[in-house]
Amino acid sequence: MTGGAETISDPVSLKNKFEEEIGSLQMLCDQFQSKISMLEHELNKDKREYVNQLQRLYERNAEAIDKIKVHQPRQRAHDALQLIQHFDEFLSDQPLNSMIFTDPDKELSKDKFLAVQARIAHRYEEVERLLIDEFGRAQRDEKKMAEVAKILSEFKRFYESKKHVKKQIHSGGLQELKRDVQARLLTVETYGGETFLSEDVAISILQETKNAFNRASQLCEKSEVPKHSENILDILLRYLYSEHLDYAVELAISGISLAEPKVAPPAYFFAVVSQNTTIVLLLMKQYEDSVLPLIKGTVVEQCVAKKWSSSLRSLEQKINMGLERQLNAIIGYVRFVLTSEQKKADFRPDNQQINLQASAVRI
Predict the structure, then answer these.
(1) Distance from the CA of 92 to the CA of which of 44, 106, 137, 284 falls in 20 to 30 A?
(2) Which parts of the sequence belong to the Exocyst complex component Sec10 N-terminal domain (predicted)?
(3) Pick from 67, 92, 117: which residue ends a domain?
């Protein structure tokens, strides 16, 4: 503004210049202030409209919220009832009919989850193998062995490998009557011919109990050997007889329909009898070779013999009943075929005359 001069020659013009610049800045400030005021006004207006809109939406949804609050406990109670019904159906002896169990869309996609399932199975077997090794290293540490055995008891067993959930089978006249009524009136479950018997499982159990009998005879006091032998036999009868042989026969019997068959009845029970007989022969051999020498002439001999004979007799009675039902089913189907499909003239001879004269026979 001074034109590059070192001294100010015209201070009045400089003052006027400053006043002009200050006036211009003041005008710009007023313009910006009016824009700011206008924007603040629009912001407040939009804010009020937004709050009013939220208030209207809240009032509009208040009734729906009240209904949801009222129906939510009812919905929870309904869901709980459905869950109880599904559990009841799953634990019953009847085939699963609900869509939640039978709908194939509920299953995981095999193509999508095959790799994941394979990794899970591999890891499952690896953990099981590590636990078995840990159980072997924990010899003489009873507390550690009990903990590892408890964990191992939850791992895959024979029935899980067959994708079968063990059912609770009760004995008694009322339960047998209920089973017979279901077999006569309802559709029976045959499990696709699966016998649920395994000679490999039986041999494994028999080998373990054989080793247990040998350890008892060598490590226990002579006076305690009979009692420990009886305890080992009780375990053998429980897991091999009751939970394997007897269970398989019960399932096979329940799979034989008592109704008049109109189609050829499946003869799965004969396979059960065959496998059952093989396993029982192995069981009898171990009883004669390993149990009798340890209890002979002791106070527990009579009690053990009674348990043994009672178990075999019960199994034999059930097998006989199953064979009778299987034969009755086959005979019933033959009777149905003869009465409904067989014609009387099918086996009529061409010559209706019957020769009643017999020539003499020289002896």
Answers:
(1) 106
(2) 13-68
(3) 92
Give, in order, the Cα–Cα distances in Å from 4 to each of 8, 17, 138. Answer: 10, 16, 102
Classify 293 in phi/psi space as left (phi over 0), alpha (psi -120 to 50) or beta: alpha
**Residue where a domain terminates, one of 43, 66, 92:** 92
- On whether both 178 and 235 belong to a single domain, the answer is yes
Is 276 within 8 Å of 245 (Cβ atoms)? yes
Residue 126 to residue 123: CA distance in whole angstroms: 5
Has residue 149 got a pLDDT over 80?
no
- Above 70 in pLDDT, residue 267? yes
Segment among 86-95, 118-127, 181-190 with least mean pLDDT: 181-190
201 and 322 belong to one structural domain: yes
| CA distances for 56 relative to 48, 64, 66, 68, angstroms | 12, 14, 16, 19
* Same-domain status, 187 and 150: no
Name the least confident of 50-54, 83-87, 130-134, 190-194.
Answer: 190-194
Per-residue pLDDT, 80: 86
Q: Is position 84 within any domain?
A: yes
Q: What is the pLDDT of residue 183?
A: 47
Q: Which tokens hold the place of 346?
A: 């099918």
Phi/psi for 268 (5° steps) reads: -70, -25
Same domain, 320 and 178: yes
- The answer to whether residues 278 and 199 touch, using CB atoms and an 8 Å cutoff, is yes
The Cα angle at residue 194 between residues 189 and 198, in degrees rounded to 5: 140
Does some domain include residue 5? Answer: no
Helix (H) or strand (E) holding 50: helix 11-91
Q: In which domain, by residue range, is 88 found?
A: 15-92
pLDDT value of position 167? 55
d(CA 195, CA 268): 7
66 inside domain: yes
Q: Are 254 and 175 in contact (CB under 8 A)?
A: no
Check if the beta carbon of residue 255 is closer than 8 Å to that of residue 193.
no
Amino acid at 239: Y
Hey, how many other C-beta atoms are within 10 angstroms of the C-beta on 326? 22
- Is 2 inside a domain boundary? no
